[in-house]
Input
Amino acid sequence: MRILVVGGGGREHALCWALARDAPEATLFAAPGNPGTAALATNLPIPATALDALVAAAREHRIDLVVVGPEAPLAAGLADRLRAAGRVVFGPSAAAARLESSKAYAKALMQAAGVPTAPSRTCTDLADALAWIRTRPEPLVVKASGLAGGKGAIVCATRDEAAAAARAMLADGTLGDAGREIVVEDFLEGEELSVLALTDGERIVILPAAQDHKRLGEGDTGPNTGGMGAYTPVSFATPALLERVRRDVLEPVLRETAARGSPYQGVLYAGLMVAADGTPYVLEFNCRFGDPETQAIFPALARGVSEHLVAIAHGSWRPASDLLPAARAAVTTVLAAPGYPDHPQLGAAITLPAAGDDDVLVFHAGTTCGADGVLRVSGGRVLNVTGLGRTVPEAARRSATAGERVAFPGKTWRRDIAWREIRRAGAA
Output
């Protein structure tokens, strides 16, 4: 097969790694890719949002399967364009991807489908938003409805903070078009969980549950980011809880999207808050593999996950099981540029340790390699260091140790990824 992976981050490097592991005879391409994918695939210098150029490249390189990584090209209709051109694609249509590209749409769909989620109000008018905020208990969450690169959700301790966040988005335009419509919702207590499921619109196979770490600082302090690390498996994500997520979240959403004329095919990512009584409330949906969750989930799986992607895209999927369990534990630590997330400083040279540990993987996210052959920082999240082990604590030690060995000025990272799971393991 000739496979094109669209995107150039850590998630796409992990996708290429999994495809190469499962199908070493396949010819891989990545657009635009990065220095990490270059070791596994032929990088094509095409931005992930250059739809015309990507469709042309799929034709020129006789691509048998396209796997779309990021949300922006899916929201822009890349999967639709490729299918119209006769290409086989793993990823939802633009209409189905509204689950991520419009939080307002997702909220309305969840309410229609009876999916547990926080009480909320969707607003385009500032006065309406402020009036709603005055009636709600503290704290509150203010979200840009559109795609905001992981910066569109603000947890506000007080109504005054929520009012300021709403004013910044609706009146000041701080998030541009993404914030012209906002969702103000009640704050939910509990523990977050990422549940990713493969689906052809009817059948569902749930991947190992993961937990992301959104805050910049250790102990979950500091500003929200796109994610500073993730791990799998998560001990409280029992088969019973995952079955409840299937029954109460995934199946109703798939039925509702199909009823609205936009059947869903690809991976559906439910970002959940699991309450003390075990109820999984949906915080958000993503229409693609999570980043950095993918960098932990794929290495944790046994070989063969790629076969599911191929079969779903071809419409021939008949999964033998409704769960893909983790074969081992994996912990991914994000190494970020100084100044991340607001003002990352780019250009610094990176020194990687010599390869040789089979239980450590380094996925490139924001790196570039110029004519001088020097690897340099080119994005906010620079590298993802994944440690593998029999247990989460063992994998976490390997991830943190390997993270120490990567060098670039101002390296920003957390040494406590998976701290909740490690604490649970200690208590057990």
In short: Residues 2-93 form a domain with the Rossmann fold fold (CATH 3.40.50.20). The longest strand covers residues 191-199.
